[in-house]
Amino acid sequence: MFRPVSGALVTVLRRLAPADWDKPTVAGHWLVRDVVAHLLDTALRRLSFHRDGMTPPPPPSPITSERDLVAFINGLNAQWVTTARRLSPHVLTDVYALAAGGQADWFESQPLEGPAFFSVSWAGETASANWFDIGREFTEVWHHQQQIRMAVGAESLPDPRYLHAVLDIAVRGLPHAYRDIPAAPGQTVVIDVTGPSGGRWTLVSDGARWALSSGEPVSETARVRLDQDLAWKILFNAAKGPEVAKAVSFSGDATLTGALLRARSVVV
Asked: What secondary structure does DSSP assign to the chain, as a single string?
């Protein structure tokens, strides 16, 4: 899916007016040009470190906690985005098209099983399967492209497979998001996402930890129902505030539903 999705982004970028590149996005203080630069950065890093076997430069200080990791990643991102403001939209687009094509080639050649190059930290993992690392990278390409499309008034990608794949990867961070929510063995939370890209997933507790499965159980302890557009915005930090909870339907044990609104499938 990398090739058609990144190719669709290149098509959008080539059609933008100069003023569109300076429009704000839901990605914090980043403008459209900054989000494009970030996608270019992640593609180049992947090719350099993973495909080409280059050893990543060491962090300036040891990473001993999740907070240290977040600070390190945010620093890398900010450094590149600032530097990339020297590049024209034409250059950013051309180089991203080249890097995205190389990234698609690389991922299409990779076996899905086996150890990942990068673990998926927002799922609480220190070692991940290759399919999860690749899937996480796809969620980055899709959701940052969606931020750009929203900012410039372009339609969303029409094929529902893409957003469904994003959601199916993103919800795998929910057991980690629920790690501090106590529950009795067998208690369940159904995540019911409506729309063509939606689906149903179930969190089940064994009394000590939560696990995720596709589908829904015969009986449930709690249910969270929301539409696909709000689901990705919550999980990718694009929807905040009290109005978000008003757009979500909760039923059952209220102590088991609130954690979803705080869950994030990105490093924050």
From this structure: -HHHHHHHHHHHHHH--GGGGG-B-SSTT-BHHHHHHHHHHHHHHHIIIIIS-PPPPPPSS---SHHHHHHHHHHHHHHHHHHHTTS-HHHHHHHHHHHHHHHHHHHHTS-SSSB-SS--GGGT-SS-BHHHHHHHHHHHHHHHHHHHHHHHTPPPPS-HHHHHHHHHHHGGGHHHHTTT----TT-EEEEEEESTT-EEEEEEE-SS-EEEEES--SS-SEEEEEEHHHHHHHHTT---SHHHHHTSEEEE-GGGTTHHHH--SS--
